[in-house]
Amino acid sequence: MSNKLTLAIVVALSLAACGQAAKPRSAASDAPPPGKGKGFNHDPFPSTYHAYPGVPTALVGATVYDGEGSRIDNGTVLFADGKVTAVGGADLAIPAGSTVIDGKGKWVTPGVIDIHSHLGDYPSPGVQALSDGNEATGPVTADVWAEHSVWPQDPGFSRALANGGVTTLQILPGSANLMGGRSVLLKNVYARTAQGMKFPGAPYGLKMACGENPKRVYGSKGRQPSTRMGNIAVDRQTWAKAAEYKRKWDKYEEKGGEPPARDIAMDTLMGVLSGEILIQNHCYRADEMANVIDMSKEFGYHVSAFHHAVEAYKIADLLKANGVCASVWADWYGFKMESYDGIPENLAILQKAGACVTIHSDDQNGIQRLNQEAGKALASGRRAGIEISDELAWTWLAIAPAKALGIADKTGSLKAGKMADVVLWNGNPFSVYTRPEKVWIDGAMLYDAYNPKLRPISDFELGQPGEGDVK
Amino acid sequence: MKHLLLAAAALIAAPLSAETIAITGGTVAIGDGSQPIRGGTVVIANGRVVAAGAGVAVPAGARVVDATGKWVSPGIVAPISTLGIVDGYGMNETNDARTKGSPFSAAIDVSTSINTSGQGIATERSSGTTRAFVVPAAGNTMFGGQGAVIDLGADVDPVTKPRAFQYVELGEDAGDHGGGTRPAAHVLLRAALAAAQNPAQAGWLDKDSLITKQDALALGPVIRGTMPLLVHVERVADIRAALALKADYPAIKLVLVGATEGWRIADQIAAAKVPVIAAAITDLPERFETLAATQSNVGRLTKAGVLVAISNVDASEGPYESYLTQFAGNLVAITRIPGATGLDWGQAFATITSKPAETIGMGGEIGSLRPGRHADVVIWDGDPLEIASAPVAIWIDGVAQPMTSRQTRLRDRYLDPTEKALPKAYEY
């Protein structure tokens, strides 16, 4: 939501309040309706992130993956004022005054997007006092927002940047609950506050979870859900309530009258039903994903992505037909019953079927190597006879997660006008021997392997053993 | 179906293969820290390595396997594994790693219960892992018990060496298992070692003792130095406390596990001649005992002269043995990062082959292609540390292994996910 719009709402609300003070009851029923989606402020914790200074830059001579499946050998990538200005071959004219960086023998890609992270809400050090990822006090906690748990001093952000080239990440609540709360999208730039890291203009997500975790957590407390059928039952009952809540607000916003009572959890679910908030659904098994898809149709919402989705390969056609992405690990399997059938060809089979697929980490270590994880998935696919080009595989880290997060118009590929979120790799990023050399976010160089001053150190690490070390 | 028959045949028995095999033309990595040799030959016979390297003659009558364009190496040795004692962490029913509600700890011997039927063994074997140290986790006390060295062969006889080492937690995890704190754990450790040294005077008739007679007796080989003691410690203070045990028990053969902050006192570890099974590339202060974590730990320890193997201790990416090659490759990658200390290729590959074996004194048996070692040989389709590479043939004790697993069966069933005339259950 733009600042102007926010301002307009605030003004409208204060006007309404003034009117109410003068003539309490009749004024409310006479007041003009606020308009659809304008009954209350949808952005009470607005982003204060701003792009840091950069210089007009030309990366030349590198192999470029644009993040949408194209490759340019000996390519040129230009950015200035925080935005990509042009991408082309060796013949692309370089504007006067650009800082030219030789990328010969190196690779340039859009910054890595991790659609599934818990950095900040399960930070390092992993002490109980910082364990803020699961509000495991009830199976439906759609009222909680992950951003209110994000500790912006998590050392994990710096590792994801320097070792992983991660520029954007979605922080999700955990999976203890059926509806775990709102996610938040961050630019991977340290700030004093979570708002200072918040990706401007990104839609929210609602974290949902299928399967073993909710039924185990609440079953062990002797309450619903204790089974998979209990999971779906609680979900449906909650969606039915949300539909009712939405009806009341739609009526008020379109026709005016007395505003309905606010319910913070229902606000989020209503946001899903109106298409404003995206569903990010933890779900492992093929049969459960099918159940969730039917449930989404019953209540009129859309699942943006199934996360973990170790059995997505079994229903690649179903996912494709329903336009649902699968966000997966390269090769995790067998650590719990619902991951028993994980196979390393999961991504490749989904890609072959034409389904939307992304890599993800769900892990403070894995997020440092998502390029390698995608490389493993690519190699497994090729061994199974599925031919996928390197540049197409890079979409798993770039435009595919950007689409599943609703930010494909802003980042996720090297296209003119998009955020200059760029990584210069010191070799082929699908090789184990390659690391980021430089990382830019919104055109600002925020990591440089050759400059110790461009290696962020969080408050937590300041003055502690190992401060400033190459991690 | 042919695959099935082969697999079934392999399951019937674990014969030591007498066949002489010469693998020729490949890039040979011995695993001893040396650099790979192009166009080398590996000869195995009677389940052991005969010779490997450049200019090795093919013996008369040997079956020749052409590995031109491929790599040939010893199988990966995974120290710190739960293969055979856990089928899945989220499935408590299958977990024999963590003992609950037993009076015993150090006496526990996992070699009695290695299950070769779990899907993990075949899957991880397919990634090139041929031997593993199976480690029981701390339960009743901070002692996990006696671990075993196993092979990952497709047979029912997995144990290479039972009671190969004792495992103990002396860092943050000791608190949960030894009486609440590190100092308390040290009291219990010292009491247990004293009991092991002088069983006649031990007070195990005391009902409150956490150390039973069986536990104390199991620690006898530890203080006599015939059974290595693997000590999980991460921070400087805990490493130093572990090293101090040698003052009172000079024969003890310590192996540090984890040792994330080891680089800060690398010279002391080297001087004590204590090997390390390190957390591979952990670089986060995930605990207060790992504040100084860096991926340079292994490189810096190695540079100081410490014998270092790597493991997936502290790695959150599952307990997958298949990650070891990737971790070792990352240790090579950081040699190109200014300020970091990594390993060269030969050193890195040794951290997952010969070095793990050497930490527990088994370097003469497993972990390299030096003559006389168990013939655990892998042919890879490329550089084994590289992301895209995978094994194409595997021998364990000279016996060719099946390359299939549940994963390959699922893959084959679902390469085309759509259902045909009959349901998927009829496709096999």
UniProtKB/TrEMBL annotation, chain A:
<feature type="domain" description="Amidohydrolase-related">
    <location>
        <begin position="107"/>
        <end position="443"/>
    </location>
</feature>
<dbReference type="InterPro" id="IPR032466">
    <property type="entry name" value="Metal_Hydrolase"/>
</dbReference>
<feature type="region of interest" description="Disordered">
    <location>
        <begin position="23"/>
        <end position="43"/>
    </location>
</feature>
<keyword id="KW-0732">Signal</keyword>
<feature type="signal peptide">
    <location>
        <begin position="1"/>
        <end position="22"/>
    </location>
</feature>
<protein>
    <submittedName>
        <fullName>Amidohydrolase</fullName>
    </submittedName>
</protein>
<dbReference type="InterPro" id="IPR011059">
    <property type="entry name" value="Metal-dep_hydrolase_composite"/>
</dbReference>
<dbReference type="InterPro" id="IPR006680">
    <property type="entry name" value="Amidohydro-rel"/>
</dbReference>
<dbReference type="Pfam" id="PF01979">
    <property type="entry name" value="Amidohydro_1"/>
</dbReference>
<dbReference type="InterPro" id="IPR051781">
    <property type="entry name" value="Metallo-dep_Hydrolase"/>
</dbReference>
<dbReference type="GO" id="GO:0016810">
    <property type="term" value="F:hydrolase activity, acting on carbon-nitrogen (but not peptide) bonds"/>
</dbReference>
<keyword id="KW-0378">Hydrolase</keyword>
TrEMBL record, chain B:
<dbReference type="InterPro" id="IPR051781">
    <property type="entry name" value="Metallo-dep_Hydrolase"/>
</dbReference>
<keyword id="KW-0378">Hydrolase</keyword>
<protein>
    <submittedName>
        <fullName>Amidohydrolase family protein</fullName>
    </submittedName>
</protein>
<dbReference type="Pfam" id="PF07969">
    <property type="entry name" value="Amidohydro_3"/>
</dbReference>
<feature type="signal peptide">
    <location>
        <begin position="1"/>
        <end position="18"/>
    </location>
</feature>
<dbReference type="InterPro" id="IPR011059">
    <property type="entry name" value="Metal-dep_hydrolase_composite"/>
</dbReference>
<keyword id="KW-0732">Signal</keyword>
<feature type="domain" description="Amidohydrolase 3">
    <location>
        <begin position="283"/>
        <end position="398"/>
    </location>
</feature>
<dbReference type="InterPro" id="IPR032466">
    <property type="entry name" value="Metal_Hydrolase"/>
</dbReference>
<dbReference type="InterPro" id="IPR013108">
    <property type="entry name" value="Amidohydro_3"/>
</dbReference>
<dbReference type="GO" id="GO:0016810">
    <property type="term" value="F:hydrolase activity, acting on carbon-nitrogen (but not peptide) bonds"/>
</dbReference>
